[in-house]
UniProtKB/TrEMBL annotation:
Record region (Disordered): 225-254
Protein's name according to its UniProt entry: ArsR family transcriptional regulator
Single GO molecular function: DNA-binding transcription factor activity
Top-level lineage group: Bacteria
Domain (HTH arsR-type): residue spans on this chain: 49-143
InterPro entries registered for this protein in UniProt: HTH_ArsR_DNA-bd_dom, WH-like_DNA-bd_sf, WH_DNA-bd_sf
Length: 254
């Protein structure tokens, strides 16, 4: 998501999970009732200032780190991001001003600790399309997701090379790059099915000592045939699947 962001005319909000640091993707999925208590819904008409505040790559990354790794100080986040403590402190205060984060309990009382207020941020894609500021935010968020994809790939390979991940993760890890013809309704059903299965598997593996954080990147982007300007058409799908080998197929895992 970005790309996992779905843009359709179906009036359903898309949750964008702002996890922009390894591990943890910006994650898009359909809204379900159990998410109500842990999401922040952004309305471009009422939350223009908050959207503008979040339209900054470092702030998105800081929010993602707090959501994935838990409370932290500006100094700790400076180390994680490679930024100065003064810079992270400033951007954290901006996030706090618009209620994306709040003060957490202090360990020793010497430095302020911050925590995320919600687990996910959601919005309506259709509503975002009507505001220049909202479109700018979505663009920054999507670019942050692509950056996270690159970071995750590098981190995954490093973890394997250094032995932080066992060889049992070689087979199930990978990417799928396919091109299929779907209707808007089928693409929506695909997102909802993915969300349901991810939730079920995460619940099943909760507490399992063998479980690791897995960065999931999902994308479903409709492309009009022959509509792109010269030089802008995407390359054809490779049609490859790098992941667990098919039990009855001929594809090789890579």
């Amino acid at each position: 998501m970005f790309l996992p962001c779905r843009t359709t005319e179906i009036p359903k909000e898309i949750l964008q999970k702002l996890f922009c640091e390894v591990p943890g993707p910006l994650y898009a999925h359909a809204v379900t009732d159990d998410h109500e208590h842990r999401r922040r819904v952004l309305d471009p008409r009422q939350d223009a200032a908050a959207l503008k505040a979040l339209t900054h790559p470092l702030r998105i990354r800081l929010l993602g780190l707090l959501r994935m790794e838990g409370p932290a100080t500006s100094s700790e986040l400076a180390v994680r991001t490679g930024e100065s403590s003064a810079s992270t402190s400033y951007h954290l205060r901006v996030l706090a001003k618009y209620a994306f984060i709040a003060e957490a309990e202090h360990r020793d009382g010497r430095e302020r600790r911050w925590k995320s207020v919600h687990e996910v941020t959601s919005w309506s894609n259709a509503a975002m399309a009507g505001s220049q500021e909202a479109r700018a935010f979505v663009d920054v968020a999507r670019r942050a997701q692509l950056d996270h994809l690159e970071r995750s790939l590098a981190r995954h390979q490093e973890d394997l090379d250094t032995g932080r991940l066992g060889t049992e993760w070689l087979e199930p890890s990978g990417f799928t790059d396919l091109g299929v013809r779907l209707t808007p309704e089928s693409l929506t059903e695909l997102w909802e099915t993915f969300e349901r299965i991810v939730s079920e598997l995460a619940a099943r593996d909760e507490g399992d000592p063998r479980a690791e954080q897995v960065a999931l990147f999902t994308g479903g982007l409709a492309l009009a045939s022959g509509a792109g300007a010269a030089g802008t058409e995407p390359d054809a799908s490779t049609g490859t699947t790098a992941g667990p080998a098919k039990k009855s197929g001929t594809e090789d895992a890579s």
